[in-house]
Amino acid sequence: MKSYAWIPAFLLLILTYFLSSIPGLKVLPVLKQVNAILVSYDLSITRLAVKIASYLPVQLDPAKTFTSDFYAYARANPVIIEFILRKSAHVILFFLITLSFFIMLHQLFKRPGLAVAGAFLAGTILSFLDEYHQSFTANRSGNLVDVAIDMVGVCIAIGLVIFALVITRRWRV
Fold first, then answer.
1. In whole angstroms, what is the distance from residue 130 CA to residue 75 CA?
2. Comparing C-alpha atoms, which of 161, 143, 39 is closest to residue 103?
3. Residue 122, class by beta-carbon neighbours within 10 Å (0-12 exposed, 13-18 middle, 19+ buried)?
4. Distance separating alpha carbons of residues 54 and 52, to the nearest angstrom
5. Which of 24, 62, 127, 171 has its C-alpha lying 20 to 30 A from 107's C-alpha?
6. 3-class SS shares of the chain: helix, strand, coil, % to 5
7. Residue 162: predicted pLDDT
8. How would DSSP label each residue in 93-127?
């Protein structure tokens, strides 16, 4: 187990570098391609969402209304949806990076406090490096707002790890 703990962190770093290297990366065209692949297998994101919504209890009808209103708004304003998806991707990616670094460092050091601090530091440094790298990519820019959004993912991961360590009584420095 120990010898393989670095693999998820390494793969996530490669993914981050790859995505940051794509000039003018947009999320919606990628999702359309994913949906096209799903449709070729007689699946689709929209049909899946409708099927899930059909199983929701009557008490959640206001949520169904909100969802259909949001869907209509999204179709009329794709730029806003693109923005929300991109920033959500930042949070999720840096959450996963931080979590994978915690697992790797915990395997290495066997001290949760040191692993938490190392994972936080790694997530922070990688966030700055990712934005710096994007500043050299065509139609991309590196900015501190994205670093702050990345840090939301880092902080959620660290908070979750600390919470898990506290409730399992494994927190020791």
1. 31
2. 161
3. buried
4. 5
5. 127
6. 80, 0, 20
7. 94
8. HHHHHHHHHHHHHHHHH--HHHHHHHHHHHHHHHH
Q: Per residue in 114-169, pLDDT tens?
A: 999 999 999 999 999 999 999 888 888 888 999 999 999 999 999 999 999 999 88
Contacts of 106 (CB under 8 A, 6+ apart): 112, 115
What per-residue confidence (pLDDT) applies to 173?
47
Indicate the SS3 state at residue 172: coil
Does 112 score more than 60 pLDDT? yes
Q: What's the pLDDT at 14?
A: 93
Across 21-46, b (16+ Cβ under 10 Å) vs e yields eeeebebeeeeeeebeeeeeeeebee
Residues with Cβ < 8 Å from 107, sequence gap 6 or more?
1, 2, 5
Residue 140 corresponds to which tokens in the numbers above? 């991309």
What tokens were used for 1?
């187990």
Overall size of the chain counted in residues: 173
What pTM was estimated for this model as a whole? Answer: 0.78
